[in-house]
Design brief:
mainly alpha; MetI-like fold; 10 helices; globular
Length: 252
């Protein structure tokens, strides 16, 4: 029971400590108040955005975009990870190409995404899905490729057909890597979300950050950053919980 409460107490203590240091530095004049607002100013700005309906609207818009982009990218990443790791011909054909794509940042794709899909939602889904896809694909490929050979030999010596070998040996062995890729991809979804919303958007956290920059509303910029941080932390906690219950034979 004590360990259960400790898991929640540690991050709470950390947050309180950071807020205290932040408030002290702000009150003591260690920071430029025009460039680095204090916690009270940021809280006031968040309440104002909430009362105006902007905060909830941006949260709904951004989480919807991130969820759709993540779903598309993760599904394709798992599929192609399986193909490139288990089918030699496909691996030879596209594995080097995917490796070339991996260093390309999401923000570099925004102009081409707008040219291809316009400034609507499709271009934002594309940018997010692209980033998630490469992360999940690499993790899935690595997990499938590094399955201990003894597992394969044991299943074949017992006469398991290929489909049982795949679903009962290969997939469970690779599952921890796949979930790690999904967890990493979820974090990248929010990173690429901001890049996708900086242009051609009328709502969303990334759009609101850019709008606040134009009007030099630093307190609102901090609200957007905190939103992204809290969403990312919450999503990461969800993936940790799911992986501990689904991939219970492996420590995440």
């Amino acid at each position: 029971m004590l360990s259960y409460f400790a898991n929640y107490a540690r991050p709470l203590v950390s947050i309180i400590f950071v807020l205290s240091v932040w408030q002290f530095a702000h009150v003591a004049g260690f920071t430029n108040k025009n460039l680095f607002p204090g916690p009270f100013e940021v809280a006031t700005a968040s309440v104002k955005l909430f009362n105006d309906g902007v905060l909830i609207k941006d949260l709904k818009t951004s989480t919807s975009r991130a969820a759709i982009g993540f779903g598309l990218g993760a599904s394709l990443g798992i599929l192609f990870g399986i193909l490139t790791s288990r089918v030699q011909l496909i691996r030879l054909a596209i594995y080097p190409f995917f490796n070339i794509l991996r260093p390309i940042p999401a923000i570099a794709l925004v102009p081409i995404a707008i040219v291809w899909f316009g400034i609507g939602e499709e271009s934002k889904y594309f940018v997010i899905a692209y980033t998630v896809f490469l992360a999940v694909w690499l993790a899935t490929h690595h997990g499938m490729e590094h399955i201990p050979e003894t597992y394969i030999r044991a299943s074949r010596s017992l006469g398991a057909p290929w489909y049982r070998e795949f679903f009962e040996v290969i997939m469970p062995a690779a599952a921890p890597h796949i979930f790690a890729g999904l967890r990493f991809g979820a974090a990248l979804a929010f990173l690429s979300l901001v890049a996708a919303e900086l242009t051609g958007a009328s709502a969303g956290i990334g759009y609101r950050l850019e709008e606040a920059r134009q009007y030099f509303q630093v307190d609102r910029m901090f609200v957007g950053l905190i939103e992204l941080g809290l969403l990312g932390a919450l999503l990461d906690a969800v993936f940790v919980f799911i992986s501990k219950n689904v991939v219970h034979w492996h420590d995440t």
